Every structure is written in C-alpha cells, then in structure tokens.
Amino acid sequence: MTNRSPLSDAEKQWLQNFERKLKELEHRDRDTDVTSFLDPRQLELAETALRTNPAFSYLVYGGYPAAERNVLNIFPAQHQGTLPALEAVLVRWHEKDVIGHRDLLGAVMALGLRRDQIGDIVMLQDNEAAVIVSETKAEYILANLTQAGRVALSSEIVKPEKLPLPRDDGRIIKGTVASLRVDALLSLGFGISRSRVVLLIKSGLVRVNWRPISAPSDQLSEGDQVSLKGRGRILVESVEGETRKGRIRLKLKKYG
Asked: What is the CA radius of gyration of the chain?
C-alpha cells in the first residue's frame, strides 16, 4: 500500500525501529517473530516494509476477522507460518451497572500493561465484553482484573473464535468464473473489474486465509477465505461443477 501523506516524525521513528528489527531477525536463528499489537497505521507501515523484503512472509491476526488492532507473525519466506497465539478474556458485570469501552481499557491498563499489549476490546451484550490479548497475558488479566472503577467484574478465558460476536450470516453469491484464480473470485464476490482487483492485490490489500498475497493468479479452493481491506471478506463455500462452455460454477458467501 502506498502512503497517501508524508510520514510524521513519530511514524518515521516507528518504521525505522521496525526495519531495524527485521534486519536483526535476518541474522538470528529463530524461525519466527511475533510483534506486539499494532494499530491500523502501524500495520500499514509494517506491511509496506515487509513487502520490500523477500526474506520474510507473515500472517496478520487480531482474534477475529474485523479486528482493528492486529499482531504480525513474521517468519522466513520459505516456511509455513501459524497464526499468533491470542486469547480472549471474556468479562462480565452486573446488568444494573454500566461500563463503556474506555472504562474497561482503563481498568486493563491500570494492571500495568502497555497499550501495545492489548488488542481490541469488543463490547458484546449489555453486560459483557472481550479483551483480546496474547496468550502470555491472559492469565495475568484473569487473576487481576476484578473491577473497573467501582464496578465488580468476573471473567474467564476463551478462544477468540468462541466469542459471541454479533452474527453475520453472510450473503450468498452465485456465478461462474473461467478459473479459480483469486482475481476472478474477488471480481465476482465484490462486483469490481478484474483490472481493479489486480491493482488491489498488488497494493497489498488482499489476504487469503490471513496470509497477504501479491499474485492475482493464485489458485483458490473450497473453504478458502479471501479478505479485501475495507470491503469485507468472501468464503469459497462450494465449487459446483462446470457449465457447457467450461466455466466453473461457484457459490460464495460474502461478509461485511
């Protein structure tokens, strides 16, 4: 992705530090490195740096598909990476009490955590929220997060994929494509031209199963998920044979 405005001094410093860490990583024996939680701008800068370094590949994960704050797992380009280990601390309070996002964030940070050690705080039902954190911090928060202001809290650790997020059943899209190339499926799923899709892919805005891609010709299969930044994601729900003219029938499900 190209930057639309000049970098601020703080952004320049952050990017310089990130690029220095990449150089250090090239000379270390470790197979992988996991960042702290990045805000959307930091993620943009990090991905820009990574796309110019062929030594690395990476995965982006924030606990759920629409996460604003994400962690990067960076690993050698020839390896197969895994998603960063994240947990969700599911927090509840009495239904007569009122707690907002800021209240809960303040309570978590009051435990001595930095902002980059905390992912999204997802407000769920009226008396329930989830704090996304790294696996190493979840038990600490569970043991110490007992109140926000004067409101008593109870909590448990759950896997992020088990969170009771607002349900999105998706929208079914059926159509045909000449091949299972990612650019063809994105064009069908989002209703945009193939030429525009190619530009979006080459700008780093497309991920397949959490992994950024750069080749429009990458092939997809049933069960693959493709996300387009700012537009949502599609699931390749089923490949349903060929038409008489040899085109492939598809059923996609679009979210967001």
From this structure: 20
Six-digit token string for 96? 């007569």
Provide the phi-psi class of 209: left if phi over 0, else alpha when psi is between -120 and 50, else beta: left
- The domain that holds 36 is classified in CATH as 3.30.1370.160
Q: How far apart are CA 46 and CA 60, in angstroms?
A: 11
In the numeric block, the tokens 């650790």 are attached to 157
Q: Which residues pair with 171 in a beta bridge?
A: 254
Give the mean model confidence (pLDDT) for residues 93-117: 94
Let me know: does 141 contact 132? Beta carbons within 8 Å.
Answer: no
Give the confidence band of 30 by pLDDT, cuts at 50, 70, 90: low
Last residue of some domain: 55, 76, 97? 76
pLDDT tens digit string along 145-156?
999 999 999 999
